[in-house]
């Protein structure tokens, strides 16, 4: 039960991460997004 | 059911990789850390080459899309390559060939992947995604172990993390060390993550994960884990802006936690002081003494698992009673084939003085490089995440090096991955510095001025 919870939670988060990465142009090219996006958290429009 | 879930997860992840092949690099990290083929009950366990398939996808995907972009080799990658070649030679000349080849089988992959990683982690987001994957994989074990400990389970060698196994991260002392060592990285994600930007949910998850991490050494009742917590405490003190407040807060938390610790835990931890009466600790000293003698005859190392040849005598002295009347009893037991119980002696015994020197050099260069980034970017307002990430990666390594004093984890794949990430991060920052100095911002832009 506890194991299933731990597995489901972490695997869900890993999949969500992968899903979010699909739409990030800066995954393959740092210049793909405005610089301030990775400068600080507040500046992230996706926040 | 679990098999189906895990298989669906792997299939989904691999499918997403068709759009972004870099995801296959993450998939390999996942399979290497979690070892889902061992978690499965039935058909998943029947896929022996899951790791190999993922490695082929990761490297193949990189070769198709990334090869040639920013392909430069760093000093540390060369050092790793030298160590890998050297370990290959000691394996061929091993004293215990069967065991040596069995360890070589997984150890070479760990080092090889660390050499490969910096080529794939070309962008800031990739570095972040890779670290996040590593943390979430470790979190699967840690959350499970943390909850079980909080509910009163656990005990030395009896806390079962997802599967009853004693290899890789699933071994008690190893997961204790890694769980504590990743805390600085988890805290970095609580503030600077961009995949999951830091909001209250992310922070809540990160802090809960840190608590679970701290519970792992309690649940596994490993003394190494307690030493790692002490190391973490000192390192965070070094990095803290309000030291007095931090000292007071940490002291209060430690005192408040003591009543909640199980009796078996506190009694085991007190044996740190009276190591003479403890066979496990005395065995370590005996094995280390044997190793020092062994390398006199084989200064270039006996190859992987050469400890299997040792025959040692373990003396334990225990004292009973109190006050004027105390009885002291000494006993000697014979033992053979005892493991290294220390990464430093593991390297010395297996790879000899050259191997130990290379391994130490790889770690020393990492510590120095991260320290350099830490200092240089401390006041950088444009990219405030660089210095904290360098600090977190350095702290991971330092806590690991403390834990490694007492457990043979010199070739732990998780740690080699972090070394690979360090190289990639270091190179990414250096490339940024270079492009800043250059007259044009990017190579593709038209040259400005002369």
What's a quick, concise take on this entry?
The complex is a heterodimer of chains A (47) and B (450). Chain A is mainly alpha-helical. Chain A has 1 helix and no strands.
Q: Any descriptors?
A:
heterodimer, A: 47 residues, mainly alpha, 1 helix, rod-shaped, disordered C terminus, B: 450 residues, 3 domains, two-stranded antiparallel ribbon, 17 helices, globular
Structure write-up:
- The complex is a heterodimer of chains A (47) and B (450).
- Chain A is mostly helical.
- Helix content of chain A is 45%, strand content 0%.
- Chain A contains one helix and no strands.
- The longest helix of chain A is centred in the N-terminal third of the chain and has 21 residues.
- A two-stranded antiparallel ribbon of chain B has the order 1-2.
- Chain B has three domains: 67 residues, no CATH class; 196 residues, no CATH class; 148 residues, no CATH class.
- Chain B contains 17 helices and two strands.
- The longest helix of chain B has 34 residues.
- In chain B, 46% of the residues are buried.
- In chain B, β1 and β2 form a beta hairpin.
- The radius of gyration of chain B is 23 Å and the shape is globular.
- Chain B has 450 residues and is mainly α.
Query: Pairing-aware structural class of the strands and helices of chain B?
Result: mainly alpha
* Rounded Rg of chain A: 15 Å
Number of helices of chain B: 17
Helix residue percentage of chain A: 40-55%
Number of β-strand runs of chain A: 0
Structure classification of chain A: mainly alpha
* Rg over C-alpha atoms of chain B, rounded to the nearest angstrom: 23 Å
Work out the helicity level of chain B.
55-70%
Q: Main interface pair?
A: A-B, 34 and 49 residues
Average pLDDT rating of chain A:
76
Rough shape of chain A? rod-shaped
- Domain count of chain B, please report it: 3
Q: How far do the termini of chain B sit from each other?
A: 66 Å
Q: Please report which band the strand proportion of chain A falls in: under 5%, 5-15%, 15-25%, 25-35%, 35-45% or over 45%.
A: under 5%
H/E element sequence of chain A: H
The mean pLDDT of chain B is: 87
């Amino acid at each position: 039960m506890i194991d299933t919870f731990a597995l489901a939670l972490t695997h869900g988060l890993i999949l969500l991460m992968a899903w979010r990465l699909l739409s990030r142009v800066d995954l393959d090219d740092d210049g793909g997004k405005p610089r301030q996006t990775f400068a600080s958290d507040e500046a992230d429009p996706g926040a | 059911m679990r098999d189906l879930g895990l298989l669906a997860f792997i299939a989904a992840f691999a499918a997403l990789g068709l759009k972004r092949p870099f995801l296959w690099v993450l998939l390999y990290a996942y399979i290497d850390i979690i070892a889902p083929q061992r978690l499965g009950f039935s058909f998943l366990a029947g896929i022996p080459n899951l790791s190999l398939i993922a490695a082929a996808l990761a490297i193949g995907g990189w070769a198709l899309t990334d090869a040639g972009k920013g392909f430069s080799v760093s000093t540390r990658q060369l050092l790793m390559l030298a160590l890998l070649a050297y370990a290959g030679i000691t394996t061929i000349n091993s004293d215990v060939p069967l065991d040596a080849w069995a360890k070589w089988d997984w150890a070479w992959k760990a080092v090889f992947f660390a050499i490969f990683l910096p080529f794939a982690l070309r962008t800031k987001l990739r570095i972040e995604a890779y670290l996040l994957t590593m943390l979430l994989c470790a979190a699967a074990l840690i959350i499970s172990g943390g909850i079980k400990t909080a509910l009163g389970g656990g005990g030395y060698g009896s806390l079962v993390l997802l599967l009853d196994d004693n290899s890789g991260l699933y071994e008690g002392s190893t997961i204790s060390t890694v769980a504590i060592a990743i805390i600085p990285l988890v805290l970095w994600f609580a503030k600077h993550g961009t995949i999951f930007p830091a909001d209250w949910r992310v922070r809540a998850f990160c802090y809960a994960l840190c608590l679970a991490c701290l519970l792992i050494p309690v649940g596994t009742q490993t003394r190494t884990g307690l030493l790692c917590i002490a190391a973490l405490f000192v390192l965070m003190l070094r990095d803290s802006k309000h030291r007095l407040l931090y000292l007071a807060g940490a002291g209060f938390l430690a005192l408040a936690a003591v009543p909640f610790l199980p009796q078996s835990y506190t009694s085991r931890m007190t044996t740190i002081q009276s190591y003479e009466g403890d066979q496990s600790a005395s065995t370590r000293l005996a094995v280390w003494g044997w190793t020092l003698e062994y390398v006199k005859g084989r200064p270039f190392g006996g190859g992987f698992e050469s400890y299997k040849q040792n025959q040692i005598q373990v003396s334990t002295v225990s004292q009973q009673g109190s006050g004027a009347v105390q009885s002291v009893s000494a006993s000697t037991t014979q033992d053979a084939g005892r493991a290294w119980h220390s990464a430093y002696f593991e390297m010395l015994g297996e790879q000899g003085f050259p191997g130990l020197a290379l391994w130490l050099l790889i770690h020393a260069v990492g510590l120095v490089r991260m320290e350099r980034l830490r200092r240089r970017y401390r006041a950088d307002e444009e990219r405030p995440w660089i210095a904290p990430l360098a600090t977190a990666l350095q702290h991971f390594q330092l806590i690991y090096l403390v834990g490694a004093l007492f457990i043979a984890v010199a070739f732990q794949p998780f740690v080699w991955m972090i070394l690979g990430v360090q190289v990639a991060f270091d190179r990414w920052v250096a490339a940024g510095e270079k492009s800043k100095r250059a007259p044009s911002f990017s190579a593709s832009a038209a040259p400005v001025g002369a």
